[in-house]
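Extended Data, panel c. Modelled sequence:
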Amino acid sequence: MLIPRQKTPNLTLPLVGGGTFDLSAERSERGTVVCFYRGLHCPICATYLKELEKLVAAFAERGVTCVAVSSDGEERAKDMAEKVTATGLRVAYDLPLNVAKDWGLYISTSRGKTSIGIEEPALFSEPGLFMVSPEQALYYGSVQTMPFVRPHFSELLGALDFAIKNDYPARGEYTGAV
């Protein structure tokens, strides 16, 4: 389990369109939103990433960068980037599943073709949403066991505004006996 205020696992992946996403090299004022999604086969992911794409500039106004990440290969990641019209949202791919597990993501097995007729990979990670500080410490985290009921990015923006205004620390950091 990831612990708030502690360093997150490293994350270095290729980006659709070229270049590399390297979490340890991010130079944003307030951090990075890392949105792990299931892959091209997931219609809910496409809708979710479209919402994030619309808010990338709003996050940037607050000093936060954004990236969407999946274990899909390059072609499927390109297809997803096109499907969600990703112009501001960076789309990273080739997430190793052992790294997904390091982030606390759940792993699922294929059930064949989805409702939109795209084959699921043999194994893939379920969604997760994280806000990581510029020092690469966990600020916020949410993971799902399936594609439904995800945090809304507009609510994350509102929470970010509150946290900035009130210098609100990451919570859930206690690891002692209970």
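The radius of gyration is 16 Å. This feature is highlighted in the accompanying rendering.
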